Amino acid sequence: MEIADMVKKSRAAQEVISAYSQEQIDTVVRMLAKVVYDNAEPLAKMAAEESRMGVYEDKIIKNKGKARILWYGLKGKKSVGILEYDEAAGLALAAKPMGVIGAATPCTNPIVTPMCNAMFAIKGGNSIIIAPHPRSKKCAKRLKELYDVEFDKLGVPRDIFLVIEEPTIDLSTELMKAVDVVIATGGAAMVKSAYSSGKPSFGVGPGNVQGLIDDDVDMEETAKKMIQSRIFDNGIICSGTQTIIASKKKYQALIETFVKNGCYYVDDPARVDAFRRAIFPGGQIHKDSVGQSAAVIAKLAGVDIPAGTKAIILKPEKYGKDDFLSREKMCPLMTAYEYDTWEEAVEIAYANLMVEGAGHSVDIQSNNKAHIEYAGLKLPVSRILVNQVCTSMNGGAFQNSLSPTTTLGCGSWGNNSISENLSYYHLFNKSRIAYVKPSWNQPSDEEIFA
């Protein structure tokens, strides 16, 4: 189907659902999540096989977890008609759909990202067209097939969710120019294309989550959280913790705790360099390392590691712009650094973020509010996640108040339009109906300039 035809069909379907009540809209949105939840296992298997990256079992967890939290986060939220009325201000807020949403989705999250974007779009009364990564086109097509069955049962037009079945860069670019709003969840080139489309766009920036560890935390608990954050789905999640930044007095004991919990530690400069050259040949990440296990990464580097190793920890001699290892590593590999003061810990994190990942997130394990807020004020990131598993909770969780999402805005630092988690309220227009304030009065000049 030509892009122009897809947009025409999508627009006709959108006009139908734009007249739906809140209850009708929410019935469809709930279904979008429930289908993925109910089909989590086969969809995870398809995602692992087609993308050739990540971990099947983790993808099941991701499918079920995101379906749960996204629907729970949208449940009961108003997105149709008058959203609120402030009598004292004499102001009413009305929601109006944006139209046809175009969404470029990555092979790292081939199921949950299309699901999430569709839920947000349809919650606002919009339709959506998915432009999947070529290594996730089968997943997108299967999702469409599952949704069509349910659309028919609900009497909802199938064309509110369309998929480019044979995606290319040119088709994705054409789609972005033809729709009303663009969501680009993927690589830098795709995000740049979205912002060059001439349409309102929501993009993401690269992750490079810095992990700062304070002296007042439980080492065992902290190590388990950070390992879980690093190894989930073989490290392809942008919120996965990339570094261990620990104080010199606790460093050795902390590393021993990580090793005890399944990590392999390398501080010999020659062997660190072997991994550096394997992961970043010529300074760019090796495509064959992305989403692969620790065993595969070690084999690429020509280093023998114990069977069952969960993650590899490297100790570079330098940080920031002086080492490629300061960049995002999309595999179960972390770098480790020592600091004398908390201010130095923040300086290390800052230097690494300025190489890659500015605007995204940091993972702080600390019970010291002053330290947490110092880092929060100094570091150029949109999210500071405290004492949690960053990879699974940074995109919203029952444990925190971040908006559930799969698209994490990185603000001006990451060349993005928002510095928060993308949500449904970004995908409808808001009209403000301004009445005369009931008790307004004109202040005197003396009052104004006092």
Descriptive report:
The protein is α/β, with parallel strands linked by helices. Helix content is about 40%, strand content about 20%. It contains 16 helices and 15 strands. It has helices at about 5-15, 20-40, 40-50, 55-75, 110-125, 135-155, 170-180, 190-195, 220-230, 250-260, 270-280, 295-300, 340-355, 370-380, 390-395, 445-450, and strands at about 80-85, 90-95, 100-105, 125-130, 160-165, 180-185, 200-205, 210-215, 245, 265, 310-315, 335-340, 360-365, 380-385, 430-435. A five-stranded parallel sheet has the order 5-4-3-6-7, sandwiched between helices. Strands 9-12-11-10 form a four-stranded parallel sheet, with helices on both faces. A three-stranded antiparallel sheet has the order 1-2-15, with no helix packed on it. Strand 1 (about 80-85) and strand 2 (about 90-95) form a beta hairpin. Helix 11 crosses helix 12 (about 295-300). It is globular and about 65 Å long.
Topology:
Layout: H1 3-17, H2 22-38, H3 40-51, H4 56-74, E1 81-86, E2 91-97, E3 100-105, H5 112-123, E4 127-132, H6 137-154, E5 161-163, H7 169-178, E6 181-184, H8 188-195, E7 201-203, E8 210-213, H9 219-231, E9 243-247, H10 248-260, E10 263-266, H11 269-279, H12 294-301, E11 311-314, E12 333-339, H13 342-355, E13 359-365, H14 369-378, E14 381-386, H15 390-393, E15 428-434, H16 445-449
Parallel strand pairs: 3-4, 3-6, 4-5, 6-7, 8-13, 9-12, 10-11, 11-12, 13-14
Antiparallel strand pairs: 1-2, 2-15
Helix pairs in contact: 2-4, 2-5, 2-6, 3-4, 3-6, 4-5, 9-10, 11-12, 13-14
